[in-house]
Amino acid sequence: MNGFLDGSFDIPSDLQHSWLGLIGLHLREALLPVLAGLLLALPLAQLCVRFRWLYPPVLGATTVLYAIPSLAFFVVLIDYTGQTELTVMIPLAVYSLVVLVPAIVDGVRSVPQETLAAATAMGFGPVRRYLQVQLPIAVPAIMAGLRVATASSISLVSVGALIGNQGALGNLLAAAQKYDRPELAVNSVLTTAALAIVCDALLVLLRVALTPWMPNGRRPRTAARQRPVPEDVIR
Amino acid sequence: MTSTAKSSWSRTRHTGAAAVALTAAAALLAGCSSGDTSDNPLAGEKAKAGTVVVGSNNFAESTLLADIYGEALKAKGIKVTYKHNIGSRETTYGLMKNGTVTVLPEYNGSLLAYLDPKAEQKSAEAVNEAVKAKLDKKLTILQSSPAEDKDSVTVNAQTAKKYKLTSSSTLADLKEAAPDLVIGGSPEFQTRHQGLEGLKSVYGLEFKSFKALDAGGPLTQAALTRNTVQAADIFTTDPTIVKEKFVVLKDPENLFGFANVTPLVHKSGLSKEGVDALDAVSAKLDTKTLLELDAQVQLEKKDPLDVAKTWLKSAGLA
Amino acid sequence: MNVLNFVNAFFSDSAHWHGYDGIPQRLLEHVRYSLLALALAAAIGLPVGLLTGHTGRGGNALAFIATAARALPSFGLLVLIVILMGFGLLPVMIPLVILAVPPILVTTYEAVRSVDPAPVDAARGMGMRESRILFQVELPVALPLILSGLRSAAIQIVSTATIAAYVSLGGLGRYIVDGLYQRDYEKVVGGATLVAVLALVTLAVFWAAGRLAVSPGVRRR
């Protein structure tokens, strides 16, 4: 067992990274796309809130994009962006966008009409009202979307191993097969899962910090509780 | 929503936090995009002048050979970076052409079969001449080594017993049995001439079905051992052939041709010194050596880079 | 434009329409993997979700399990299990089920929890047994959300079942993986199109199921 554990951190030279190096690479390949997705999703979602007719077609388009398997996405992109990290990151950014747009739209829409009216009455312009009232109130919904996007992004990076060492921790899976060393696959799965859990916990902490009015970060127990955002809409 | 009333007091904090987050995000993204162009081959930027990029396909021997080439070049003071496990020849050939990869370990006859499926393979020299004629103008091959590693159709012990196949049997002897057998190989084996297509046109073999596995790797070895497939494309230097008592079928029509380990290079990327270094490697590498080195990687689980370095030292090349 | 050409070439090649590597066969395999995985995931997620949602207990434990399950990388799990167990249907089912349980479980829990407490109290006041309250009051109201959880799980399964091809199984992923190694974009794009169409069909099926199963009174809200 001892040898088994030793071996699992003995990363083959052709991956060109130490274990920590792979972790860093994995985080970069997974989180940058989520961030890019968020930056694109915010204005897009605002447009959907502003022009209601825009939302159904956007939702339809995003569902189709989400249904395209990551591997197919990678393979088609190779022709344009080569066998690089970017090829892995573009689809992940698209998936994040797909998850985040509905989450933000529903979050912003859930702000009660009277709240908006109050803000207007206080002399808030539309931009200020969006940034200081609607967005903060939508934070829990956005964070729920971010959690799903982050978890799926961290998981999907591994598939990049199939297009030539672009899967960070996923490259360990290919190496495990190539050199018949299952312990490398165990390492890959456990490390990836640990990264996902840590990132998730950080997002929960961030939400608690961003929404000081919510009791202790737990869901409020009052009857006026928000209608739950269905997973599917988040997605 | 009692929360709305309270949210006004934390207003400034939110704006502050949002601004910080946005700045950080923008900075990260900017960093990301500038970082990416440097290793994006289609951004118009070729490998940095003077640096040789050694690539490898997605199987253990290719990684090992790439390490041997790379370390031999480094010993001559040439700057080397590796681009490992790229994929199949169908992919690597494109990357060689556009200059993303400068040096790739290849197999002369297999490369010819890819460039010209109909080409006859009579001798190693003739094969090399034909390859040079068919290669993209920017590419060439260097001297071949005596070390050979062919694709082969190999059956497992129980299939050999059932159909009375021995090491002197040929592919033609499989004709009767083939419709009952599932054959396995890498996904590209299905469409290559040195694959299902050639087996059909040259030997008239039509199998029950094809199962896509990996390039002679552990999936293929396991599938053959467990009789998930009864025949498979296995590399002749595969150490498991002896271990599992697989039977390699003879190929009298030379469908799988010659497969001498040969460096494929992007002409403009390699100096005279580099060419000499690789020629010296090819002169010393024979099939027996290759088998031993493969066994060290695949059976003894040594790291290919260490195996490469040790051998180069013992051969006086580094 | 390019992509459309690929799609056209893929579907008009008659060789792609028959045999063990033909579209009908691969489609059938894909649907089979997907349905089996969805059935298994529903068999785990629905009862647990309904029960915890009804009693209102175990929400935190549930959230933790869902987070942990979501954190496990499907592709990694698949490769690991195949290395340890060899080929077969089971190694593909495990990651797919683990992928599909969290959305079903969490959505079902939330759906039952979010049912308006007034009718539930009324039912209890009328002397209904707990099981009848769950199935006759809470379930009908929660059904649209529960269906949306199932739908989201189904779409993820359909899209993810493609990775089965990497470990030598069939399904539509075969075209994508083979296309990658054969450098055959026609196959990759054709395979991806089939998967996307299958996902849209899944959406349509769930929409129809919602129409049929959800009571008009609930639907109107």
Automatic annotation (TrEMBL), chain A:
<keyword id="KW-0813">Transport</keyword>
<dbReference type="InterPro" id="IPR000515">
    <property type="entry name" value="MetI-like"/>
</dbReference>
<feature type="transmembrane region" description="Helical">
    <location>
        <begin position="137"/>
        <end position="164"/>
    </location>
</feature>
<feature type="transmembrane region" description="Helical">
    <location>
        <begin position="86"/>
        <end position="105"/>
    </location>
</feature>
<feature type="transmembrane region" description="Helical">
    <location>
        <begin position="30"/>
        <end position="51"/>
    </location>
</feature>
<protein>
    <submittedName>
        <fullName>ABC transporter permease subunit</fullName>
    </submittedName>
</protein>
<feature type="transmembrane region" description="Helical">
    <location>
        <begin position="58"/>
        <end position="80"/>
    </location>
</feature>
<dbReference type="InterPro" id="IPR035906">
    <property type="entry name" value="MetI-like_sf"/>
</dbReference>
<comment type="similarity">
    <text>Belongs to the binding-protein-dependent transport system permease family.</text>
</comment>
<keyword id="KW-0812">Transmembrane</keyword>
<dbReference type="InterPro" id="IPR051204">
    <property type="entry name" value="ABC_transp_perm/SBD"/>
</dbReference>
<keyword id="KW-1133">Transmembrane helix</keyword>
<keyword id="KW-0472">Membrane</keyword>
<dbReference type="Pfam" id="PF00528">
    <property type="entry name" value="BPD_transp_1"/>
</dbReference>
<feature type="domain" description="ABC transmembrane type-1">
    <location>
        <begin position="23"/>
        <end position="207"/>
    </location>
</feature>
TrEMBL record, chain B:
<keyword id="KW-0732">Signal</keyword>
<protein>
    <submittedName>
        <fullName>ABC transporter substrate-binding protein</fullName>
    </submittedName>
</protein>
<feature type="signal peptide">
    <location>
        <begin position="1"/>
        <end position="29"/>
    </location>
</feature>
<dbReference type="InterPro" id="IPR007210">
    <property type="entry name" value="ABC_Gly_betaine_transp_sub-bd"/>
</dbReference>
<feature type="domain" description="ABC-type glycine betaine transport system substrate-binding">
    <location>
        <begin position="51"/>
        <end position="313"/>
    </location>
</feature>
<dbReference type="Pfam" id="PF04069">
    <property type="entry name" value="OpuAC"/>
</dbReference>
From TrEMBL, chain C:
<feature type="domain" description="ABC transmembrane type-1">
    <location>
        <begin position="27"/>
        <end position="206"/>
    </location>
</feature>
<keyword id="KW-1133">Transmembrane helix</keyword>
<keyword id="KW-0472">Membrane</keyword>
<dbReference type="InterPro" id="IPR051204">
    <property type="entry name" value="ABC_transp_perm/SBD"/>
</dbReference>
<keyword id="KW-0812">Transmembrane</keyword>
<dbReference type="InterPro" id="IPR035906">
    <property type="entry name" value="MetI-like_sf"/>
</dbReference>
<dbReference type="InterPro" id="IPR000515">
    <property type="entry name" value="MetI-like"/>
</dbReference>
<dbReference type="Pfam" id="PF00528">
    <property type="entry name" value="BPD_transp_1"/>
</dbReference>
<protein>
    <submittedName>
        <fullName>ABC transporter permease</fullName>
    </submittedName>
</protein>
<comment type="similarity">
    <text>Belongs to the binding-protein-dependent transport system permease family.</text>
</comment>
<feature type="transmembrane region" description="Helical">
    <location>
        <begin position="157"/>
        <end position="177"/>
    </location>
</feature>
<feature type="transmembrane region" description="Helical">
    <location>
        <begin position="189"/>
        <end position="209"/>
    </location>
</feature>
<feature type="transmembrane region" description="Helical">
    <location>
        <begin position="33"/>
        <end position="51"/>
    </location>
</feature>
<keyword id="KW-0813">Transport</keyword>
